[in-house]
Write a structure and sequence with these properties.
The protein has seven helices and seven strands. By secondary structure, the protein is of the alpha+beta class. It folds into two domains: 90 residues; 109 residues, Immunoglobulin-like, CATH 2.60.40. The strands form two sheets. The protein has a four-stranded antiparallel sheet, covered by helices on one side. A hairpin with a 6-residue loop joins strand 6 and strand 7. Helix 3 runs antiparallel to helix 4 and helix 4 packs antiparallel against helix 5. The longest helix has 27 residues.
């Protein structure tokens, strides 16, 4: 295998000041492709290439100093700094999330839609666990009339049905916690957020109600229902 063209290409990338700048069009094009195809792994690939190009630009700037063309590094660093700031802001506050875009909703199991209003007594007579929409898609409120016979706290677990992925695992237990003791009685209710996915990309999830008793007793499940949900768009 002739490696000379590859070596020559690397040398040109670091030595010719404008090549690292133009190379930003590559991750940008891959990012657009990811948006069109609605694929998170393509978006992630574009982000990796973007940061690799920033590293390459820094190395190229050092090379410009070595070859006595230090004045060329300013444009390189200004462009890279601007793009780094812009991309950082974008992926922090509005990252694309296509988790639910290609999920299939099973048709051979019972799946409910979250209610748009507070549950009625008739709803409690039918189900121990009820989900309602709370303000925005992806933000929900769960209701239950189950009265545990001991102190502890209720909380929610959620799983995407076709893959069994646990949703919002690091946040959901704490965010959905309801303290239970002898001084409070059902019905209980609390809001929580599902972060996987975006508005409009609906998929099926198994919503489970769990109880964590005081002491060293293990957690146990109280109820579960299948719901069609979508993720909260940050």
């Amino acid at each position: 295998m002739n490696l000379k063209p590859i070596k020559s290409g690397f040398v040109r990338y670091f030595k010719i000041w404008w090549i690292p700048i133009v190379s930003y069009f590559i991750p940008f094009g891959i990012f657009l492709l990811g948006l069109v195809l609605q694929r998170d792994f393509i978006i992630n690939t574009s982000l990796i290439l973007f940061y690799l190009n920033i590293l390459g630009t820094i190395i190229s700037s050092i090379v410009q100093v070595i070859i006595r063309k230090w004045y060329l590094l300013f444009l390189q660093l200004i462009v890279s700094g601007f793009l780094f700031f812009y991309v950082g802001i974008f992926f922090t506050f509005s990252p694309p999330d296509f988790y639910g875009a290609h999920k299939n909703i099973p048709e051979d199991i019972e799946i409910s839609e979250p209610l748009n209003s507070i549950p009625t007594q008739q709803d409690y007579e039918k189900h121990d666990l009820i989900l309602t929409i709370y303000g925005q898609p992806g933000i929900y409120q769960y209701y239950t009339d189950i009265n545990p016979k001991e102190s502890g706290f209720l909380y929610i677990k959620a799983y995407e049905i076709t893959s069994n992925d646990q949703l919002s695992k690091d946040r959901l237990k704490e965010r959905s916690k309801i303290i239970v003791n002898s001084t409070v009685q059902s019905p209980f209710f609390k809001d929580f957020t599902i972060y996987e996915g975006s508005w409009g990309d609906k998929y099926a999830a198994r919503i489970e109600l769990w109880f964590d008793p005081e002491g060293d007793k293990p957690d146990y499940k109280l109820a579960e229902r299948n719901y069609i949900i979508e993720g909260w768009m940050r």
